[in-house]
Amino acid sequence: MDIKKYNVPVPRYTSYPTVPFWNSEDFTLEGYEQSIQTAFWLSNKEVSIYIHLPFCESLCTYCACNTRITKNHSVEEPYINHLLKEWDLYLEKLPDAPIIREIHLGGGTPTFFSPENLERLIGGLIEKAKISPSISMSFEGHPANTTLKHLKVLEQQGFDRLSLGIQDFDLNVQKLINRLQTFEQVKKVTDEARKIGYTSVNFDMVYGLPGQSLASLDETLDKVISLSPDRIAYYSYAHVPSMKPAQKSYEKYLPASEEKLAFMQFGKERLKESGYEEVGMDHFVKRTDELLLARKNGELHRNFMGYTPFSSQLLVGLGVSAISDSWTGFAQNAKTVESYYEILDSGQLPITKGHLLTSKDLFIRKQILNLMCNFETTWTEDEILSFGISTNFDLLEQLENEGFIKLKKDGVKVLSEGKEILRIICSAFDARLNESGKSPQFSKSI
Ligand code: SF4
Question: For residues 140 and 163, is the Cβ–Cβ distance under 8 A?
Answer without folding.
Answer: yes
